Amino acid sequence: MSQYDVIIIGGGPGGYNAAIRAGQLGLKVACVEGRETLGGTCLNVGCMPSKALLHASELYEMAAKDFAGLGIDVTPKLNLPQMMAQKAESVTTLTKGIEFLFKKNKVEWIKGWGRIAAPGKVAVKAADGTETVHEAKDIVIATGSVPSGLPGVTVDNKRIVDSTGALSLTEVPKSLIVIGAGVIGLELGSVWRRLGAKVTVVEYLDRITPGMDEETAKTLQRSLTKQGMEFKLGAKVTGAKTGKSGVELTFEPVAGGPAETISADYVLLAIGRRPYTEGLGLDGLGIAPDKRGVVANDHFKTGVPGVWVVGDVTSGPMLAHKAEDEAVACIELIAGKAGHVNYDVIPSVIYTFPEVAVVGRTEEELKAAGVAYKVGKFPFTANSRAKINHEAEGFVKVLADAKTDRVLGVHMIGPSVSEMIGEYAVAMEFSAASEDVARTCHPHPTRSEASKQAAMGVEGWTMQA
Ligand code: FAD
Ligand code: NAI
């Protein structure tokens, strides 16, 4: 039986960051991961492969539609096997990179599926069925999440696919129905639409991207519709029938009315993800997960001494950077340091075109909380860099406290805003006022000037034609 200071179960962004930080702090650490490769959902079947396809498909569409206007005459031809191969290659480089970091930081990778046999004891079942038991003072659960299912829609990853299946289709569908107008549906729907599919998004609610600032969500929907994506909102899916060459999907209006049936080559089910705890042995420990996963009572503590939890398997946004920050803070607490995560400042991005990037609270949340706020808004049509690049869609919106001017929320929609939101995350971490950003010199010409101008707009001195 081997002995560790800490064992982490799961090798995704929560698990691998916890393991590496533990190694850096001189703890004897092991990470249990059952997949063939490290990196979890994010590196293997999530963030990275999806961004690889989003990048490639965006360039493909630009080459087909926008290059001529820039004076570059090309007729792009899609090579889907190569597009998939470059995606796979990038993923392999990244997952191998985690292996390298494990070695560098003296993290042992125990290959297999972990079960907490008792506090301080982790049993690991290897692929050949053998089980080994390992001891640790502290155990961190970082087992992540898996796609949610929908009764009547059976994912076979042939015709009805989840996100993993949609990342590896071997042909461009003529038509694709996406169930769920959330982040996955819009990102992967964009990939296949750009490559030539007719995409129809069927969403239960009467809006897309629930939780997002409404004005931003409407702007995104308008833009995606203009690109050719069709939306059927307020639609309750009642069943999907798979045939040899496609799927028939039936849905009815949530508000009542006759059912409708549409068909497509493929259906992507993307209605959210659920925390994954199967086989972990939580029953035996007296840990009862709720709908949002393993409950962390206080700073990643599960209530069972020495058993901690981070990432998608516990509450909060299911985002890689949230898992990563929790992992680092959790290990620092285990090591007797002062780890902390500020849940008010977790940015999130939708990598569509235009991108959406947000941090902090929405107008709807501020209104509901009765907080008086001011709005500064700046459109990219008035930003010189966006204009010369012929990519002037979208805006930056800054919400600041009406009394203190402290930045409470920022909502951006436009090309490359994923690279702009970090500035406001830092500003909010430092409790900045909008005036702090407004009076910070930004380089010209850059899109980031729209961030400054929006902050200037809070006090009404935006320079806009
Ligand atoms: P996971 O990454 O799910 O890792 C958990 C790991 O634990 C898995 O590898 C699993 O095999 C392993 N495991 C589970 N049980 C056991 C066990 N008993 N024993 C051993 N190992 C076990 N987030 C972003 O921030 N940005 C993005 O752009 C983004 N894009 C995404 C795109 C898609 C298509 C998807 C599906 C997700 C995306 N996400 C994105 C979400 C992101 O992938 C997750 O938030 C992140 O991976 C969570 O990290 P985690 O470590 O908590 O869990
Ligand atoms: P989601 O929660 O973003 O969206 C799910 C959508 O499906 C919602 O609009 C919801 O109203 C709808 N829905 C739910 N039940 C439905 C039903 N029965 N019929 C029709 N619509 C229904 O979930 P998604 O897109 O599956 O993504 C899962 C998680 O992965 C997200 O929480 C997100 O945080 C993470 N992710 C993050 C990315 C990023 O940061 N760029 C990219 C992809 C995923």
Structure keywords:
seven-stranded mixed sheet; 14 helices; Enolase-like, domain 1; FAD/NAD(P)-binding domain; alpha/beta; 26% strand; binds 1,4-dihydronicotinamide adenine dinucleotide; 465 residues; globular
Overall description:
The structure is a single chain. The chain has 465 residues and is an alpha/beta fold. It folds into 3 domains: 2-147 and 274-341, FAD/NAD(P)-binding domain (3-Layer(bba) Sandwich), CATH 3.50.50.60; 160-271, FAD/NAD(P)-binding domain (3-Layer(bba) Sandwich); 345-458, Enolase-like, domain 1, CATH 3.30.390.30. The protein contains 14 helices and 22 strands. A hairpin with a 5-residue loop joins strand 5 and strand 6 (131-141). The termini are far apart. 1,4-dihydronicotinamide adenine dinucleotide is lined by residues 150, 179-185, 187, 202-205, 210, 237, 270-273, 317-319, 348-351.
Name of the CATH superfamily of the largest domain: FAD/NAD(P)-binding domain
What bound compounds does this protein have? flavin-adenine dinucleotide, 1,4-dihydronicotinamide adenine dinucleotide
In whole angstroms, the N-to-C terminal distance is 72 Å
Instruction: Supply Rg.
Output: 23 Å
Overall pLDDT:
97
